[in-house]
Amino acid sequence: xxxxxxxxxxxxxxxxxxxxxxxxxxxxxxxxxxxxxxxxxxxxxxxxxxxxxxxxxxxxxxxxxxxxxxxxxxxxxxxxxxxxxxxxxxxxxxxxxxxxxxxxxxxxxxxxxxxxxxxxxxxxxxxxxxxxxxxxxxxxxxxxxxxxxxxxxxxxxxxxxxxxxxxxxxxxxxxxxxxxxxxxxxxxxxxxxxxxxxxxxxxxxxxxxxx
Length: 211
What we know:
By secondary structure, the chain is an alpha/beta fold. 41% of the residues lie in helices and 10% in strands.
């Protein structure tokens, strides 16, 4: 898939710049059987797959050739969601990130139209969905972040990033923002894909590489 080929190109560029790069095949991925692809307590039902990301960061921090004070993270789409979770929950581990088209509020999945019968576990499900969201841990998010999102994204609504940026403004948290006008979730225009790639590596390089 060209989306992943593009991401591998970013990883190769980061390695060329001097980064140690680890790409995580977190739970929910395909190719390792049903239990790996559909584990319990993941996504809006608990975000258990984030533990795979945190474990990867801790593994990097333990490597002799890695400075544990200069570990960053980036990802797009679902990877953007996990990037935001990492920065919100573990800013002490992940010092900076690039969140590309990420989901930030799972609670909206449970907004029901008026008149719909409510299940007995509705309130509990909403609470778990909220706790699975980066938004729930916003108060402890201290790492700088670059948000990138297309304003015509049909997969992850642009409002996910727009709302989070508004909250960052209110709380005085460090961030940068790149809006890609008129394009979709997977960057239909090649020039936009290049622009996102360059912004990602430049942001990580500026914050993490030694002068």
